[in-house]
Amino acid sequence: MHKFIFIFLLGLCFSWQAYAQKIQSPEINGKKVTFRIQAPLANQILVKGSWQATDDKGTTLIKNTDGLWSATADIADADLHTYQFIVDGVPALDPNNLFLIEDRQVYYSAFILEGENTKNFQGAQKRGNLEQVWYDSPTIGSERRLNVYTPYGYENSTERYPVLYLLHPGGRDEESWGISGRLAQILDNLIEKGLAKPMIVVMPNINPEQKASPKLFLPANNVDTKSPEYGNLFPKSVVADIIPFVEKRYRVIAEPTSRAIAGPSRGGRYTMMVTNEHPELFQYIGVFSMGLRDDDLKNAEQNFAKIKTSPLKLYWIGCGTEDHLFESVNELDKALTRFGIKHTYAVTSGAHTWSVWRDYINTFLPLLFK
After folding, report:
1. Please, is 138 exposed, middle or buried when counting C-beta atoms within 10 Å of its C-beta (0-12, 13-18, 19+)?
2. pTM value?
3. Where are the beta strands (DSSP E) in 212-301?
4. Cα-flanking dihedrals φ and ψ of residue 20, to 5°?
5. More reliable by pLDDT, 295 or 79
6. Residue from 81, 77, 107, 78 nearest 95 by CA
7. pLDDT for 137-187, tens place per residue?
8. Bridge-based pairing state of the strands 284-288 and 314-320
């Protein structure tokens, strides 16, 4: 179904190519954003965007006598916003906008509304590199792919760098932090401003059944996703496969004081699983929008037994008050306090979204490797 919609949208873009050069969309004037699309045969067009509530059907565009539809929205929050047109009930990309974001194997048109929250979203003067690398994972039983960010100057130096292992949320893949998370742009800017230390960031695919992003159409790994062991496969592979590979291939500082691990949602859960079992490997931990479930609470003392005595430099957790997991993150905060694990808890506005997680990584990166 997704493939059919994408092909339809691609054809739609080509059919409107002649109009695309004459139409500005989106047009940004302060916090007012105007959307336009040429579709003389359409009966109704809406624009549905990330700035709107989930149950909001979208903003209705008005058609002029030339078949040009338009609408202006007042958007309060500076952010990387995504949107789609809904043309007679069918989602469509904006044919006049080449800035696309893919999330959960769905493509959206996008734009950045400038402000305090987005000052690190644009390209810096000195840019690091983001590469895709294949590695062998005997734990999972296949060759798999991860994305690796290396800071500006890495190729021409002999310096060794600290490493952040950055996990993606559920339903995404190894490309997600680079695309939806703006990781490279954010870190380039923070390093250039002297706010974060130059570091290597490793972004693996946390889905054991996948060799890489589904966009590559590779055959699935032979993994039983219903097995009780499924949830442990990736955390085990971090320790057994990924860290050894990274420390052999890249110039890293292979010490706990120079290793960090973090992630939102399921990536946050895997972060806790890895660090609870192997606290000796990491001294910087970030858990975003993920807390303790009922079974975690029953076994909390056992789960956190090893990490209670570890010389952690940072345990940072954060969650938005509109997040459906907010109460579970409150339970995590209480458990860490009860066990005497020093930590920072950031309570912010926002839901279970990339908008929140971009803010968190922008806050988390400057705290590392101090």
Report:
1. exposed
2. 0.92
3. 259-264, 284-288
4. -60, -35
5. 79
6. 107
7. 999 999 999 999 999 999 999 999 999 999 999 999 999 999 999 999 999
8. parallel
Angle (CA) 249 125 197, round 5°: 50
Closest CA relative to residue 110, chosen from 183, 47, 19: 47
pLDDT grade for 299, boundaries at 50, 70 and 90: confident
How far apart are alpha carbons 119 and 177 in whole angstroms?
Answer: 17
Cα–Cα–Cα angle for 104, 138, 233, rounded to 5 degrees: 50
Using an 8 Å Cβ cutoff, are 283 and 311 in contact?
yes
pLDDT-derived band of residue 3, with 50, 70 and 90 as boundaries? very low
Q: Would you call the peptide bond into 91 cis, given omega within 30 degrees of 0 as the criterion?
A: no
| Pairing status of strand 344-348 against strand 314-320 | parallel
Other Cβ atoms within 10 Å of 171 Cβ, number: 12
The amino acid at residue 52 is: Q
Q: CA of 294: how far to CAs of 320, 329, 330, 337, in Å?
A: 20, 12, 13, 18
Helix 230-237 with 266-277: angle, nearest 10 deg: 70
Token pair of 11 as six digits: 């054809």
DSSP E strand boundaries for 206-276: 259-264
For residue 239, CA distances in Å to 111, 162, 170, 304 come to 38, 16, 20, 18
3-state helix, strand, coil in the chain (%, to 5): 30, 25, 40
